[in-house]
Design a protein that fits this description.
The protein contains 23 helices and no strands. It has 570 residues and is mainly alpha-helical.
Amino acid sequence: MNFGIYELLNLIGALGFFIYGMKIMSDGIQKAGGTKMRQILGGMTSNRYFGVMTGFLITAIVQSSSATTVMTVSFVNAGLLTLVESAGVMMGANIGTTITAWIISILGFKVKMSAIALPIIAFGMPMMFSRRTKTKNWGEFLVGFALLFIGLAELKGAVPDVKNNPEILNFLAGFADISFLSRLMFVLVGTVLTIVVQSSTAAMALTLVLCSTGVIPFEVAAAMVLGENIGTTITAELASLVGNVHAKRSARIHSMFNIIGVTWMLILMPYALDIVEYISMNYFGSISPYTAVDGWGDSMSPVPIALSIFHTGFNLLNVLMLIWFVPALVRVAERTVKSQGDMDEEFHLEHIGGGLMQTAELSILEAKKEVSKFGDISTRIFSMIPELMKETDSKKFGKLMDKIRKYEDITDRMEVEIANYLAKAAQGEMSDSASIKTRSMLSIINDMERIGDICYQMSITLERKSEQKMYFTPEIRETLEEMMKEISKALEIMNNNLNSEYSQVLINDANEIEISINKMRNKLRKTYFEKIEKGEFNIQTGMIYSNLIHSLEKVGDHVFNITEAIIGEK
């Protein structure tokens, strides 16, 4: 058989053509269905059974389990999902990816889609030049859909011709009754193949083609399909590398789920394949997939269907078995992926969520959650100021100062990272509402960073007071605490607004508390100047008191600015 470098490059090129078509199709459907995906994502709850359905639907829409798992890891990193919720979603994604295998098996092998691919491109290409974004996205989907099946046809033509090379069949006959170790070896082959092509769907398509043309036996193809389930977990693992400890644990759960499933299926594989053969012959009207590999007919159509039955059956059974053990998987993930401390637990925003989502809608949704988390961080750093003011123990005071410095550094990093993320998202196509939201969030994070700066300056002021052994009278302390309580109320309102749909936020509550803070500042200033005139205040203590009042009022201003930005007034 003549199969050299040129033929190998043809095979790789055909696979690349298929992957490119799949990416174009996936991107198009994600853009066209961005709003719908957002609604589905908004429906995620702590019910892991509902999470399975959510993961299934998202994967069925975007036609990519990798996109779903990366998205899930991103949302865990952003605090949108818990580990239990993410486990359900990833289980559903495993079932959802079987839809793609069925589409390829039925349309790519039973129907000659490549014959009508060019007319589909002729129909979709003009749509891609439409001024309407929705039409353009659907055009992109159609062109990608056609390219995918042209790539599949090329892939089928690029594999070695085994009909005229019986020596290959003689070699492969040795795998007709493969042992457990042989099955394990081909699981590893499937895993490596998926890691190399970075797509379980592309790896599955290649396996279907190789098996349907007789290059590999049905048993070997089934073992490779199992390996592809493990290989697809590498995408989530890579996405979690830049995430926090919760994101890493989410990816670990996904890996454990697939590895456990493949392990039990490897043991039961001979019986499972017998069941697949029975279903294929009795319910799909085909002959045995084993017979097809031996050279029956020209189309080899029983093989893709049988492999799709095996793939779907395995993933369904694995979910049904392991969904009851999600809490145990979470516990194992928590024990095997150790936290590196508060920073790892509470914040990790370098490369938000492992990268941009495929659509502006999803990118903005993720950024909104990060901005909401920024609000929590801002509230936390402010809550340390009253503690610092009351603290008399020098060691505890020092630890609090270190903590405030750390959080101030976090706010600086958060502003930069979120701003960079939003800037990259803005480079793509955006609706008017997404563009407005982006501008709002850029204004919001700027104000939040200023809150962190002011809190840090207040801590320096209190540190100087402590070093110089100055003391506040009970009256000064009470007035400052009263103003701090008002700021805390304003921050609570701010966080509620950040966690709400921006279009539904009203300014009334924020406006009332801002007026209250300003009145309190005016009253305290007036009292301060009166006491200075009467000589009732130590000048140095009075200056510190005055600086704190001014700083607190500035925090209140920035908090109010945030609500104004949310509703679009700033």
